[in-house]
Design goal:
heterodimer; A: about 280 residues; MetI-like fold; 2 domains; about 70% helix; globular; B: Rossmann fold; OB fold (Dihydrolipoamide Acetyltransferase, E2P); 8 helices; about 25% helix
């Protein structure tokens, strides 16, 4: 019976792996094809089925004037906006979360949980609700179509995630740990950065990863809040799709788009396992 | 130069956690706070530490208003019932941390830490991670951190409660040693516990706390011999003291369905109804005694604890040897009459076998 379960388990894992990995392999294969190999018949393996070409990749780095799309600049724009917004969100979010976890706030009927929910509610709302206010807001302060404007908007999107994850994390750090730090001669700020923060690294990494993922994949706000000056990667990738769909360069751009996330996922994977999170304390 | 608290009260959600508490703790002394769970022990210790700001009352230490000094400048040490250490540091770093915070010189640090490690018996464990230690060892690290600081006030909040039986016995012995030898006359030691036996063994000044109120203060012996009222008798005895309703009629004590000879120390009582108290250890097996039925028999260590019943009268007896009994078995017991306490119907002590009484 146990053997049966083992077989079942591995069968499932294998199928799931194929389900996840196959599209990537397909994209890798397609990115080296040309019009002929995509449209004539189904082809899989380079050199055997079709003659590989680097044309799909070359288009990505050539300027539009030379018949390319040039995703290099949007790529760096995306990295800048995502990293800056994530960093600020994590810093502010962690401070907010610590306060929400440790101190009691009262304002009318508003309590700590209500404030936490207020943060999360920013993510519950459909993004389209926020689009017009954001547009008017950015145009009023003159940040429409600029990197700074995008960073501001992304902080609004990402900070709730950081607050949400970190409140939960801090709630699991015993209060007695802070108290011991106070008794041992730390003022509240020292207690936070000498004792609580070093023990929250797994939480910070998980929160950071989620911020990076959600910042990186956002298309909607990047699309409506920018025009010509600044473009982010997702918008540029979609723009590739013109009268004829260039499957080869689309595949190549899709691969370079997800590459950073795959790297991030591999780096933080060990922190995501339950053992590491719960083993952080006690 | 004492730690003096006056009329300290603290209320949370309309419930008193501390109710008009006053104390005068002297340097070089050991104080034990005895009370059941939620009696306010931890709240009191946290108030002294400065982690809780009481609603009213004042606290002075070394002629300074203690309430005005923030926690991190108070020069106190505290050991919690949970084993609280810094998980991101090893044993050595944990003990050094408070010293570094206070800018103690490197030389002094080394000396203090070595001494503290020796006292708690953790020499050789300096580079271990906290997670690699057993519960007992973790609590020793917490204790070492508190000792190395040479704080003027050392608070121990039920430090043994989360340890298993064996370790508890062992650490309790070590505590006694540490408290009697390694303590400077400059330190006030405050130890809270739910365990009356611990209080008796540590033999300090005792404060009995219940529902945030001080019920009785005094040396351990005094609390044991003359509990001021039923509540104190209950809290300071494990197993709890047997309380039997009855009355004194000339030369007899009449319990519900038992009549006993009046012991001489109760001679002066007026004839009326009382709550008579007798410790479980003063109930003896006796061929000629009263017949009781066994409801439950527990063997713990080298003792046997019997829950007995006769009509509506329930009695707990502590027999100092291991014996096997069957449930519902009938046995005969007798009370050691000379050890009867008499409490009046409101619960205050009227007469005790050890002489003192307030009646």
């Amino acid at each position: 019976m146990e053997k049966f379960y083992t077989i079942l388990k591995y069968t499932f894992i294998t199928l799931w792996t194929v389900f996840i990995v196959a599209p990537f392999l397909w994209a890798v294969s397609t990115s080296f094809k040309d019009f002929q190999s995509v449209n004539s018949k189904v082809t899989y393996i380079p050199w055997l089925d079709f003659e590989p070409t680097l044309e799909g990749w070359r288009v990505l780095v050539k300027s539009p004037a030379r018949g390319g799309v040039d995703i290099v600049e949007p790529y760096f724009n995306s990295i800048f906006v995502t990293c800056t917004a994530s960093l600020i969100s994590i810093v502010l979010g962690t401070l907010a979360a610590y306060a929400l976890s440790r101190f009691t706030f009262k304002a009318g009927f508003v309590r700590n949980n209500d404030i936490t929910f207020f943060f999360i509610s920013q993510r519950i709302m459909p993004p389209i609700v926020l689009s017009i206010p954001f547009f008017i807001f950015l145009s009023t302060i003159g940040l429409l179509d600029s990197l700074l404007g995008l960073v501001v908007v992304y902080i609004v999107l990402l900070m709730p995630i950081a607050v949400w994850i970190m409140v939960d994390f801090f709630n699991r750090v015993p209060k007695e740990l802070d108290e011991t730090a106070l008794i041992d001669g730390c003022n509240p700020y020292q207690a936070f950065y000498k004792v609580v923060l070093p023990n929250s690294i797994p939480g910070l990494i998980v929160a950071g990863m989620f911020c990076i993922i959600f910042g990186w994949i956002d298309f909607f706000f990047a699309f409506i809040l920018t025009f010509t000056e600044v473009q982010l990667l997702p918008v540029k990738v979609v723009a590739l799709n013109s009268s004829i769909t260039p499957w080869w360069s689309l595949s190549a751009s899709a691969l370079v788009s997800v590459a950073p996330l795959i790297i991030v996922a591999f780096v933080v994977e060990r922190y995501l396992s339950k053992g590491n999170l719960s083993g952080a304390l006690k | 130069m004492n730690l003096i608290g006056e009329n300290i009260s603290y209320k949370l959600d309309n419930e008193y956690h501390l109710n008009n508490i006053s104390f005068n703790f002297k340097k070089g002394n050991l104080y034990t706070i005895l009370g059941r769970t939620l009696s306010g022990k931890t709240t009191l210790l946290k108030t002294i530490a400065g982690l809780i700001n009481p609603d009213s009352g004042s606290m002075d230490f070394e002629e300074k208003n203690f309430s005005k000094i923030p926690v991190w400048e108070r020069n106190i040490a505290m050991v919690y019932q949970q084993f609280i250490n810094y998980p991101h540091m090893n044993v050595y770093e944990n003990i050094v941390f408070p010293l570094k915070q206070r800018n103690v010189s490197d030389e002094q640090i080394k000396k203090d830490v070595d001494e503290a490690l020796k006292t708690v018996g953790l020499v050789g464990f300096e580079n271990r991670k906290i997670q690699e230690l057993s519960g007992g060892q973790q609590q020793r690290v917490a204790l070492a951190r508190s000792l190395a600081k040479k704080a003027k006030i050392l608070l121990l909040d039920e430090p043994l409660v989360n340890l298993d039986y064996k370790l508890r016995e062992q650490l309790r012995e070590e505590f006694k040693k540490i408290f009697s030898e390694g303590f400077s006359q400059e330190t006030i030691l405050i130890y809270s516990t739910t365990d009356p036996q611990e209080v008796m063994e540590l033999n300090g000044e005792v404060i009995v706390l219940d529902e945030g109120k001080i019920l009785q203060k005094g040396p351990a012996k005094e609390i044991f011999e003359n509990p001021l009222n039923l509540k104190v008798a209950e809290i300071s005895n494990d197993p709890p003291m047997n309380i039997l309703k009855g009355s004194k009629i000339s030369t007899k004590i009449n319990l519900e369905n038992i009549s006993l000879e009046l012991p001489s120390h109760l001679n002066n009582l007026i004839d009326e109804a009382y709550n008579f108290g007798i410790r479980a250890s003063e109930v003896k097996l006796d061929e000629n005694g009263e017949e009781f039925e066994i409801e439950l028999a527990e063997i713990s260590g080298s003792e046997t604890l019997l829950h007995l019943k006769k009509g509506d009268t329930k009695v707990i007896a502590l027999i100092e040897e291991v014996m096997n009994f069957r449930i519902h078995q009938k046995i005969r017991i007798n009370f050691n009459n000379n050890k009867f306490y008499a409490f009046d119907l409101t619960g205050n002590l009227v007469s005790s076998p050890y002489g003192a009484s307030n009646g």
